[in-house]
Amino acid sequence: MIRHIKYLKSVQRPLVRILHIKSPLQNATSVERVVSSANTTKEIESSMPYIIDGQKYNYKEGNIYQGFLCERVEPIADFGLMSCTLRHLGTGTEFWHLDSHDIQNVFSIHFRTKPFDSTGLPHVLEHLVLCGSENLPVRDLFYKMIIRSVANFMNAMTGPDYTMYPFSTKNEADFRNLQKVYLDAVFRPNLFFMDFLQEGWRLEHQDLHNPKSDIVIKGVVYNEMIGSYADNSRFFKQKMLNYILPNTYGHIAPGTQLEIPKLKLEEIVNYHNKYYHPSNARIFSYGSFDLEKTLELIDKEYLSHYDRIDTSFSRIPSEDRWSQPRCASIQGRPDSSISLDHQNRVGIALLMCDITDIQESFEVKILSELLIRSPNSPFHKSMIDPNFSGGFTKWTGYLPNCKDTYFNVGLQDVANNDVEIFEELFDNTVHKVIMEGFDSKLVEAILCTQELLRKQQSECKRLLYRSTVLWNHDGDVVANLKISELFEKLQTKLKDNPNYFEQKLEKYFINNKHKLTLIMRPNAVHEIERRQAEAKLIRKKLKETNDAEFKKIYKNGLKLEALQQAPDNINVLPCLSINDVQKPIPRPQIKEITLRGVPTLISHEPIAGITYLKCMFNTTGLSLNDAMLLPLFCNVFSEMGSSNHDYRQFDNIIRSKMARLECTAKIVENVTDSKTYRLGLLMKAFALDKNVWDMFQLCEEILLNFQLEDIDRLKMLVTNYITKLTLDVAKLGHLHVMTASSALVTNAAQLKSLLSGVDHIDYMKKYVKENSIEAIRDSLKSIGSKVFSRSNLRVAINTSENNVFKILGDYERFLTHLPILEHNIEAKEIFLLEPSFRYHNLDMPLSFCAKTFFAVPYAHEDHPALRVLAKFLTSKYLWPVVREKNGAYGAGARIGFDGLFNVHSYRDPNASNTMKVFDKTYEWLQAHRYKLDEQAVFEAKLAVLQLVDWPISPGEVSLDSFVLGASYDIYLQYRSRVLAVTVDQVQNVIEKYFRDEPKHFGKCILGPKSDEIEV
Ligand SMILES: [Zn+2]
């Protein structure tokens, strides 16, 4: 389970920042220099990345560095990296370093943590590790460090058989600070009983101060798992893993509601001693900071204090192969918006190869993509085209997440009668492919897409994630990153044997008895049963409790509360100084030109042979009815083919040349005055440099000749769109609730909610029910005829410098062919709404709450101080009260570019209480003036800087400038204002914006039905 830090990031991050990030492939001149020094005779294509091969490298195999023996040094040309594998002499700990010129640096420690039951032991341990350690006895370590660091990523997660603790930062002082914190946390955690009660589970009086009040179960992980498995998709995936690998992965590592309360602290302590021993650890680093300093710290402070132990106890064996297929049936939560007999989920999983068989695993991945990814894929044709479900289940495809990998395909929102035919459909599809073979055009298309995507995914955290599971099972992580070699080997096999994939299909899909069919049916009384089981569990626990223990429940409750309110001595934690954060991100290399009347931003950054295209069509002039269908239009128009190629042909052509088009509807407020907003359609595409001409051609084809006449196809796309909308509501509830409460404050935010929030979901469900597919088609066609014009277009192109000149001709040709439509409306006026409160029923056991008011837009001089205040409120008020005391999984405050100030809670068991906490913000600020000192303001500034300087991928450089109009100069000014914020300024904005209830505010709760809530 991904911990709360991830959640926090996802809350704080939705705005993309301008950043020049040095990719692993430096600038073009250094590429040439390094390549020539390598004396390579091979011709370098423009798409060929930077190669270190032959470069003089610091570390040599056989040498010892700070107690570590260097075992293997090897270049990874595909990512322009040098890999260096070391082993600690004393403990045998493996250390893997990826040397790169990247300014982004990553560090991670992970342990192989096999679960023995579903009490969530490794997961609770992961939480406890962050509750303080020997040298750093501070609770909620990550959370406290967030405000003392500029890290752009800090996390801890529990996988099915590993627990990992990664972070990344661009600042070396920060990197060293965080290393110290991480190492002390994992190797010397305090594992105190009170922290166990808070993070794991505990019995507690409903009213803490009344020993006669009812007893309830609380605990961060306990609540987290109730929320987590309320998501049917996640639960289905988890159960599929448990059933397909019953001996090796039969337990639920993050824990289940009924099993977590069996866990004892003592078991955790013993487990930590054994499984968090350095011999069972794997340590990773990536980037340009000095490796030897890292090795020295690890050896001196930690590893040298341990001996080596045999770690075969944590190894996961292979699953025994079945002699016949199996079936399993489970129950899920009902969805009140769909009829109960249409809510089944059915899936089939098949065991594939061992994860350490790298070439095989790679080929099975391609095979799986062939089967499902494109509309030309066999499973797509047989299961999706007939349109009898809500589409594939999430995570359909190949899952290399464990020792044994597996493939799975499933359908959601299936009618009772159709559940039975699924298995037959599956078998028929496989047989048909074996008889007829794969379409060679599909094979080519899928191979091209995979190559493009893998080249694009060079981001350092992705490299780590891609390697973690394999490494956990002692696989060759270096070979796994040599993508070109894997592709070449496969290409040779395909050349030698035209039936290669068909034979593979026969092996894994016909002659494979390790096959599971899993059915999930909705249980209408799911939530009632869950509550009953909880009540029964509490009664059972109380029965086993004697008088003395019962009194302890009351005492511990008070003790924990006192502890939560006691000030932490956070001064023991390392902290950056103001000098460490002076440097802004470098100015991106941008050219602004106007071509054929189209304003164009060309950003020429060093990019790995990929060109990115973004087109923003201003659609502010659309009527409200049209605007509300714009998101659906974005989702379907490029999936329907063109007048020259049907959707099947078109899909093959697109995949062979570029990544699929991505379109979204965007509402952008003016960041300077917040007086106007624009509505736009943002279209994104990218391709290898050698295919740029094709990319422009294909974009032109779809923009000018898209066609919506294939009614069956359109119907299927619309159905799947509606299903997808509801899928992540529970996971993204905090974003939905902020959108919904913002919608009560301005008309622009109201439109946003109608285009992307819960209002959009409600509207679309109703709209699709009430309109024929022909009527929907006609409406979409009419939108299409009003949108794509050169007169309302702006474009951004990100490419490498030496490519700019080459592509301009293709780009101009593309523009020339676009039509010019008149009567465009540039922007609309924003107006503020009357205060209101809204409650929206959600089929969830927990709630999401928000309160929003209008403050000032991004470019206003008060914005930085308000943003600093938001961070201060999050860490000093909302987090301790709403999360630690009231038991919500998360809480926070933020102010957006649009000037709306939000406070919110996430997975909240106590919504009405939280709304009161939101209302008392000013009161609390008054009573706790003393907390707002120099250090607190500085910490809040660091937290703001993390977001202001957020790293972004090469394809997204200057996106802020392009989409929001927040240029680099505006960023610079904003950044220096943040650095200059004083305690007095924060006090001023408190008085100015918080003393009186704002004139324009909105409050919203998304959550289960409750009598307590008055609307
Ligand atoms: Zn967790």
UniProtKB/TrEMBL annotation:
GO terms classed as biological process: protein processing
Signal sequence coordinates: none
Native source organism of the sequence: Drosophila albomicans
Protein's cellular compartments: Mitochondrion
Names of required cofactors: Zn(2+)
SUPFAM superfamilies associated with the record: LuxS/MPP-like metallohydrolase (SSF63411)
Family listed: Belongs to the peptidase M16 family. PreP subfamily.
Domain Peptidase M16C associated residue range list: 520-767
InterPro entries with a match to the protein in the record: Metalloenz_LuxS/M16, Peptidase_M16_C, Peptidase_M16C_assoc, PreP_C
Main location: mitochondrion
GO-annotated cellular components: mitochondrial matrix
Keyword presence, ATP-binding: no
Gene3D superfamilies on file: Metalloenzyme, LuxS/M16 peptidase-like
One Pfam family recorded for the sequence: Peptidase_M16_C
Protein name: Presequence protease, mitochondrial
GO molecular function: metal ion binding; metalloendopeptidase activity
Keywords: Hydrolase, Metal-binding, Metalloprotease, Mitochondrion, Protease, Zinc
Gene responsible for this protein: LOC117570067
